[in-house]
Amino acid sequence: MTAVAETVLDAKTEPRPIDEAFLASVLSGLSKRQKTIESKYFYDARGSQLFDAITDLDEYYLTRAETALLKEQSAEIATLIGTGATLVEFGSGSSVKTRILLDALAALRLYVPIDISGEHLDAAAKQVAADFSLPVIPLHADYTSRFTLPHQVSRDRLVGFFPGSTIGNFEPDEAAAFLDRVRSLLGPAARLLVGADLQKDPARLEAAYDDAQGVTAAFNLNLLVRINRELGGDFSLEAFRHKALYNAEEGRVEMHLVSLADQSLSLGGRQIDFTAGETIHTENSYKYSLESFRELAQRGGWRSEAAWTDPEGLFSFHALIAE
Ligand code: AVI
């Protein structure tokens, strides 16, 4: 057999090693009284595609509102930031929203996009460097954990960028702790630009997380597809339904997967039992008022310098200064 044929055969027969951290997290979440799966596991290749499709949905106003707000306010943001700053983006993806800022910011010194997906990051970084004739140092890291900036990045005039209301996917205590870490990372006199979805009519919020075409349902159910494929699970997709609800007491939209029957399944050598109607809680998306977001920022060591909202009052964008 030639080396090439052997390689092909190996690829077909050798199962992929199981991601033990993923398995441990799912088993621990499914053994709680309120079953949970961590929302960071939404984003495999299919999940990321589905999320991109969500951002184009009529019901999912967040991306449109934030993009319009950034376009509208970019000149004012640029005036606040001045010249010679370094922009550090947390979870940069394809840097789409960054381009709006980069168009407006004068004489930026450097752009540092941080993302967990290395391949995606390098391609997007090259494109931005070429399109804006700007030095770019991509950093492949999980921005939710502790990391340091590359040594070439001077801690002078650093501006963090965290758009998309991703801050809303943290529990408030975690969000405050994250903001505090970002402040230590960026150093004294740093600024942070953050997008945060606003509190609004619950019906509008629930529609944004339960669209008529079922894209968000597919995004939520894809967690089970991923567990079946990567961890050898035996979830039946027909036996679970997507549910989104606004929890007014907590000020958050919750996503769940509802078991449609009493059922038992096996995962990692364990049996997991569901009663009909029982749910797996898969995501929280906290919504803030301008004031409650300022309070959160303050807990993380930031003072509000400016905040903007769109004319409909759907979304907010904040400029913060390290205290
Ligand atoms: C990534 N994040 C800000 C989205 C949100 O709105 O919480 C994730 C999402 N979940 C369902 N639809 C979108």
From TrEMBL:
Residues 24-320 form the Histidine-specific methyltransferase SAM-dependent domain. It is an enzyme of class 2 (transferase). GO terms for molecular function: L-histidine N(alpha)-methyltransferase activity. It comes from the Bacteria. Its EC number is 2.1.1.44. Keywords: Methyltransferase, Transferase. Signal peptide: none annotated. GO terms for biological process: methylation. PANTHER family: ERGOTHIONEINE BIOSYNTHESIS PROTEIN 1 (PTHR43397). This is L-histidine N(Alpha)-methyltransferase. It comes from Pelagibius litoralis. The lineage of its organism: Bacteria, Pseudomonadati, Pseudomonadota, Alphaproteobacteria, Rhodospirillales.
